[in-house]
Amino acid sequence: MNTLSLSASKHSKSFLNLLKPQTSKTQSSIFLLSHHLSTDPGPETEPNPKPNQSPKDDDLLITQAVELLQPNEKDWNFDQLHHLLFSNSAAPSPRSLFHITRRLGASSKALKFFEYVSENVASPPDSTVSLSSSFQAILELAKREPTSQNKLYDLYKMAKERNIPLNISAAALLVRSLGMVGMVDEALIVFNDLDPGLKNTHLRNAAIDVMLKSGCVDDALKVLDEMFDPKAEGRVDQVTGDIVLSYLLKREWPGRSFSEEDIVGLVLKFGEHGVFPDSVKLTKLITALCRNRKTNKAWDVLHDVMKLGGDVKAASCNALLTCLTRCNDFKRMNELMVKMKEMDIHPDVVTFGIVINSLCKSRRIDEALELFEKISEGREKSDGVSTEPDVVIYNTLIDGLCKVGRQEEGLRLMEKMRLQNGCAPNTVTYNCLIDGFNKVGDIERGCELFHQMKEEGISPSVITLNTMVDCLCKHGRLNSAIDFLNEMQRDGVKGNAVTYATLITSFCNVNNISMAMELFEQMLRDGGSTDAIVYYSLISGLSQAGRMDDAISVVSKLKEACFSLDLVSYNVLINGFCKKNKLDKVHEMVQEMEAAGVKPDSVTYNTLISYFCKAGELTTGHRILSKMIDEGLVPTAVTFGALIHAYCLNGNTDKAMKIFREMGSKSKVPPNTVIYNILIDTLCKKNEVELAISLIDSMKDKGVRPNTATFNALFKGLKENNLLEKAFEFMDQMIEHACNPDYITMEILTEWLSAVGETEKLRRFVQGYEVAASTA
Fold first, then answer.
1. Contact 414, 448 (CB under 8 A)
2. With contact defined as beta carbons under 8 Å apart, do 505 and 493 qualify?
3. What is the maximum span of the chain, computed from C-alpha positions, in angstroms?
4. What's the pLDDT tens digit per position in 669-706?
5. If you placed Cys at 438, which of 446, 710, 752, 771 could pair as Cys (CB 3.0 to 4.6 Å)?
6. DSSP helix, strand, coil percent of the chain (3-state; round to 5)
7. Disordered: where is this region (predicted)?
């Protein structure tokens, strides 16, 4: 490089123009970033003094020079300055020039000093190092000033034109500053123009950070590959890993997408160079893999990091344990716990909570209690564990005990919980116990716990409300459920969608549609949280009660609330309109269903097939069946039952029997008890009793269990043909299958057996004794 010999008078004016404030309203973003970038961290933040100068001498020179330069630039005494800096053979060190320039405070003033130095400094290599140090200070000052975004880059171009080399700290400052104000192309130009020997780890990290944040991913990965090279000047370090992994663990990446395999591959590559993700990043990666159902990959990456020597914490293991719990993979849970012990990774309370929760969900309560006792008694302290069970662990165990019917043990555990410091029962504790006693039908005990909870000042939640309401409704105490809801609402706990859905469904089930509608209106008036499930419950109840106009009214309100009908609701409505014989409404529902993108299922088709078959439109029924098969849906026993029943009603037994035989051969759909009953009843009415009896044998061969209706139909046919001995045989079969006779059975047999003098047989039959055997 040639010695700089430009005169200050000739060049300072144009050079100083670079540092004049812009008239733009928008001040530079660089100024806003100066707080964060006041000193660019790196290995060469400031130059060292010369070997023959002590830091003390250097500091004295700096102080004297700054005092001379304090006045306005016009009043500088260049003679004194020259005598101080250049009178002896030892020119000022790069460190001296760096600090003198930086302490001038303003970039314009510093730049004038820089021009003076460039005119008087010795020839290379001293001039190169000294001017680079002084120029670094100018960049730092300019960066802090409210200047325009282009100012730093203009300074860089000026330095390049005048062959002033950047040192590493100045280069890193430029790359970061330009990148943070969006001048990515300019930042990359600065980085790429540098000599490869100057690109140390710190500078490469700065460049990678800028590239990734701006979406220049391929450029960043190219630099990263260079850093993985064992012969590279700047090797990867922990900062590199943090920058790259922080970027890759985002949900979305500007410029390019990454697969989990890509991320895992980079983690392992960093690991081979002794760089590992911290606990937060590793936990985040494992959680993401588990969320995407890549449990095996999560397992591998955690164990690979352990194998390569990474510092794995309990949190990362907990993330994997949680996933293994959801998969019920107890084998690998145990393996991971053993591995944690081998690696001296101390489990925390979350670890034990996950394991206990898993054991409880799999009904392995005794094992969960054993682990709980070990924690409580401190047996694990010798292994480095000194944690105590928290309220979450207690609640998990209490809930687990209640779910397996060990409510009393749950109560005792709650009392033990009270004795532990900092651990007291809360709303969840009581909810678990109340639900446990309610599930076994002990409603009074559940109510007692509810009142105890309130006496202790523990506020019940909407879950408490729903637990009690659900239990009362299931036991038929609907009025008590309403009273409980009103009481809770007076205490400030409002019912939610689950509360009203439970109540509405329960009142619909007992055909109290008026109360169901009243509850629905109350829910809308109260303005509480609504859910589609409430509308679905009411639509279903109204449809089953035949109140289709009211059901359609609720559908309108559902749509006003921005909900959509689901498949089940469409099926319920279609079935309701079929029962009302409103074919136009059925057609309208099917069209609306298709327009909404809700695909009909086998229930939809079976409902339509059954409707048209009962209406005698068998051709339409078969056409719908063909469409059902074309849509890829498999006909069920209900489908064939509807067709068989229709042909039986039309007196076409042959066609009905043909469909029956095709069920087992072509369609591979086994007939059920209902289909057998339809055929047996029809055959007996047509006096084809022998064929009906053969169907009884077929039921036995196919493992289909007959019921009381089956035998009633058969007894009618046997009576008409006076096949008394056969009747005795089937009376025994009825006892054998534990089919209790109903009033129809007794009416048929009493009239017939009394007429033929076999009342003793009838008495034995009623008492559950064999009949045919006594005849023998």
1. no
2. no
3. 148
4. 888 999 999 999 999 999 999 999 999 988 988 889 99
5. 446
6. 70, 0, 30
7. 36-57
